[in-house]
Amino acid sequence: MPLFTSPTDNIPRCGWCAATEDYIAYHDNEWGYPVGDDIRLFEKICLESFQSGLSWRTILAKRESFRAAFAGFDFRKVAKFDDTDVERLLNDTGIVRHRGKITAVINNAQRCCELVDAEGSLAAFVWSFEPQDEGIEPQSRSTSPASIALSKELKKRGWKFVGPTTAFAFMQAMGLINDHAEECASRVVATQARAAFTPPAIQT
């Protein structure tokens, strides 16, 4: 897997960091580290949905605007958005103004409320799809059996814009898999973070 070594610190990183300096902080501090917070998980699912057909650089640059526009991705607040909010968002130049994706976020917030009521938390549900080590080279695929299963179950529950590729990117970013390149300096850190993380359990 190609690596990127920044001339400013000589630290080896995943090759995709070479695309823009904006990626470095995201890569070093967020990507691939386990997340158990429902709001952050919901935000990431939504942003991955908005990324569909676009680059992550575009979404990352607009992330603060997305947070402001969607009530910090508090899904219980977003679930109450109405047609007036849709029109407001369609006129917000700080975000990606795609009606289908905007309405999908509102729909998914409503479905998330239902899921949390049923399962106890979004985190418990998501982490129940954590795959075992499959021994596959990092960043060598865009879907996996686990992402296909997660996508299928979300769609079954009425979620939208959550295909297997979107689900896989979400799982990469939220630490359900460690997809840092083998020689990337963050791979060991992510492995340690995962070892110290206890996924929440679905309520019984």
Comma- or semicolon-separated keywords:
two-stranded antiparallel sheet, Endonuclease III, domain 1, 204 residues, mainly alpha
Task: Reconstruct the topology from this structure.
Layout: E1 3-5, E2 12-14, H1 22-29, H2 38-51, H3 56-61, H4 63-69, H5 75-78, H6 83-90, H7 99-119, H8 122-127, H9 145-156, H10 164-173, H11 185-195
Organism: Yoonia maritima
Keywords: Metal-binding, Zinc
InterPro entries: Adenine_glyco, DNA-3mA_glycosylase, DNA_glycosylase
Q: What can you see in these coordinates?
A:
With 204 residues, this protein is mostly helical. The chain has one domain: Endonuclease III, domain 1 (Orthogonal Bundle). It contains 11 helices and 2 strands. The chain has a two-stranded antiparallel ribbon. 32% of the residues are buried. This is DNA-3-methyladenine glycosylase I. InterPro entries: Adenine_glyco, DNA-3mA_glycosylase, DNA_glycosylase. It comes from Yoonia maritima.
The average pLDDT value, as a whole number, equals 94
How much of the sequence lies in strands comes to under 5%
Question: What is the end-to-end distance?
Answer: 42 Å
Number of domains: 1
Radius of gyration, taken over Cα atoms and rounded to an integer in Å: 17 Å
Biggest sheet, in brief?
A: 2 strands, antiparallel
Under the CATH scheme, which class? Mainly Alpha
Low-confidence sequence ranges: none
Say how many strands there are: 2
* Helix vs. strand class: mainly alpha
What's the total helix number? 11
Helix content: 40-55%
CATH architecture: Orthogonal Bundle
Major beta sheet, strand line-up = 1-2
What is the CATH fold-level name?
Answer: Endonuclease III, domain 1
Order of helices and strands: EEHHHHHHHHHHH
Shape: globular
CATH superfamily assignment? Hypothetical protein, domain 2
